[in-house]
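Supplementary Note 3. Input sequence used for the single-chain structure prediction.
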Amino acid sequence: MYDYPVTDIIHQLNLPFFYDECSLRAYFEKAANKTVSLILTQNLTSMISVKTHGSTVSLRLHRMFLSADSDVLNEITELIKNRKGRNPHIRRFIGHNIKYTERKPNRLKIRTDGRFYNLFDIYNFLNKDYFNGMVSAAITWGVKRPGRAARRRTLGSYRKHGNIIRINPVLDSMEIPRYYIEYVVYHEMLHSDMNTETGRGRIHSGEFKRRESLFKYYEKALAWEKRRF
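The predicted structure, written as discrete structure tokens, is reproduced below.
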């Protein structure tokens, strides 16, 4: 048995072990040279979220990152600075530690493989092309609800609670063009990226509409929607 002082072990393993939110936030502010708003969560669906609000970077992390090593913290720092970058150490850290978390994820059945369209492929394509891979919401086909008029159907939704995008399975049809499904998915991913929920009575901001119009087939999708629904 080796009797090393605790401080020596921490130095050898390069493990900072931040014990509270304030010290971890201070670390990131110094390392990234940015003002950071940090919130620690128990959210197993979205373990890392980085959003920029003016001069402040909003960072949400699962509490497991309080014991992350310097390699992991360096990759998070790069996300704060650039909102992109490779993160093999983060993936390794999550994979190793997720089994030790106190909470288990909700038993939500995720179904992305439809009869005609695979939501996982569409989501990844859009995430890479429009969001630098930073949208972390889960996505699934919703449950079929027969008997509702097409004009009253909700074709897509995003809920902060659970960080989940649901797409109406009525769109999983050979009669629906791919660009229109991409538009619906993009719209809900935009809600996730801007941290706003969909729902009756909610108003899309001017910035939301501006970003929505950046979708490549925006006008074409709206024109098809007007004809069909």
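The CA atoms of residues 97 and 199 lie 35 Å apart. Residues 1-18 have pLDDT under 50 and may be disordered.
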